[in-house]
């Protein structure tokens, strides 16, 4: 049962992203929202870690949070809006938000 | 699909707005929201006493309008709410407090409502943190 | 079929009501006879250490409340072996019979449950 993991904390001041990366299943997805989109910052170790994920793991980022922060999504990430977020939560079997 | 949406953050947290936009998108996409359940700091997102400066987004007001207009089942966890001073008229009388800050359309109830919603829904989606 | 719910508790015990409120979700689910699991991850494993004296902080004893989990029918209890190891707790006795699982086993655990709440 594939899980969509949702993060919203900055990976530079919080351990949720690294904890999450260790627990990802082969068909899970990862949606970055809020400050978690800083993980896509070019040149960061966090982006390198995300780029090392197997291709089977979907990487998504919420468009408004990228735009607000002036971050352009890396090629690896698929940008979604709210309808896209809803669609993802239907596509995956469950949603695990790291509160 | 049937969604149960749980909110764990106060109205000034970006995740409270994110939950609201998600809920609106879910309904716009033809999905159903079986219940909204507000827990932990989420109880503040239902407070009717939040006063937002005029040029800022009033998220607790938007939540209230959304729940009313869409006739949703908006439940605020009673234990979490009492602990944080979010009371309806009945509770403010019961505990002899000077004011109530929770009103229609919100209902105070227990954690069983979260579990029941999770059982009925196809998806439980939680929002909280920043 | 009742849906199973895994509660992942990541909060240290005395950093606010977070740990207690995560436990309350598990206990409420147990009271309704739902299939509930609880996983202690990251700082959440600090909830399981012995010799805590929360009275000095004028707090109720969370350890004692955790003992209620099996009584409420919540017997699927797990802890991250890595989180324990990182915090120097791998060899310490835990106050709750939580099964230590490595990362791969945790991924499989999350996969098994219908729903997850991570607090």
Automatic annotation (TrEMBL), chain A:
This is Sulfur relay protein DsrH. PANTHER family: PROTEIN TUSB (PTHR37526:SF1). It comes from Pseudomonas taeanensis MS-3. GO terms for biological process: tRNA wobble position uridine thiolation. Pfam families: DsrH (PF04077). One of its GO terms (cellular component) is sulfurtransferase complex. NCBIfam families: sulf_tusB_dsrH (TIGR03011). Transmembrane segments: none annotated.
From TrEMBL, chain B:
GO terms for molecular function: sulfur carrier activity; sulfurtransferase activity. One of its GO terms (cellular component) is sulfurtransferase complex. Keywords: Cytoplasm, Transferase. One of its GO terms (biological process) is tRNA wobble position uridine thiolation. It is found in: Cytoplasm. It comes from the Bacteria. Gene3D superfamilies: DsrEFH-like (3.40.1260.10). The keyword ATP-binding does not apply. It holds the Pfam family DsrE. InterPro entries: DsrEFH-like, Sulphur_relay_DsrE/F-like, Sulphur_relay_TusD/DsrE. Belongs to the DsrE/TusD family. NCBIfam families: PRK00207.1, sulf_tusD_dsrE. This is Sulfurtransferase. It comes from Pseudomonas taeanensis MS-3.
TrEMBL record, chain C:
Pfam families: DsrE. It comes from the Bacteria. InterPro entries: DsrEFH-like (IPR027396), Sulphur_relay_DsrE/F-like (IPR003787), Sulphur_relay_TusC/DsrF (IPR017462). Gene3D superfamilies: DsrEFH-like. Belongs to the DsrF/TusC family. This is Sulfur relay protein TusC.
């Amino acid at each position: 049962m594939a899980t969509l993991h949702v993060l919203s904390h900055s990976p530079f001041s919080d351990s949720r992203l690294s904890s999450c990366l260790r627990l990802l299943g082969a068909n899970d997805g990862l949606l970055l929202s809020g400050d978690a989109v800083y993980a896509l910052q070019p040149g960061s170790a966090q982006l390198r870690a995300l780029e090392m994920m197997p291709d089977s793991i979907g990487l998504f980022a919420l468009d408004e949070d990228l735009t607000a922060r002036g971050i352009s999504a890396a090629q690896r990430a698929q940008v979604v809006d709210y309808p896209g977020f809803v669609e993802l939560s239907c596509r995956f079997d469950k949603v695990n938000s790291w509160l | 699909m049937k969604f149960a949406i749980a909110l764990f953050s106060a109205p000034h947290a970006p995740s409270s707005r994110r939950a609201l936009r998600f809920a609106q998108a879910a309904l716009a996409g033809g999905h159903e929201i079986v219940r909204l359940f507000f827990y932990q700091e989420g109880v503040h997102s239902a407070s009717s006493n939040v006063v937002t400066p005029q040029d800022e987004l009033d998220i607790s007001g938007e939540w209230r309008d959304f729940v009313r207009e869409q006739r949703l089942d908006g439940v605020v966890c009673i234990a979490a709410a009492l602990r944080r001073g979010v009371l309806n008229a009945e509770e403010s009388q019961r505990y002899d407090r000077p004011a109530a800050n929770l009103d229609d359309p919100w209902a105070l109830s227990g954690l069983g409502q979260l579990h029941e919603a999770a059982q009925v829904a196809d998806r439980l989606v939680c929002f909280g943190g920043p | 079929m009742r849906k199973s719910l895994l509660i992942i508790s990541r909060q240290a015990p005395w950093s606010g009501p977070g740990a207690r409120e995560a436990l309350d979700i598990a206990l409420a689910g147990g009271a309704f006879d739902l299939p509930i699991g609880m996983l202690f991850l990251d700082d959440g494993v600090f909830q399981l250490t012995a010799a805590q004296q929360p009275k000095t902080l004028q707090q109720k004893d969370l350890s004692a409340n955790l003992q209620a989990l099996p009584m409420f029918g919540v017997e699927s209890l797990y802890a991250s072996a890595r989180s324990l190891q990182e915090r120097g707790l791998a060899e310490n006795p835990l106050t709750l019979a939580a099964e230590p699982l490595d990362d791969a086993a945790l991924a499989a655990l999350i996969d098994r449950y219908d729903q997850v709440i991570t607090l």
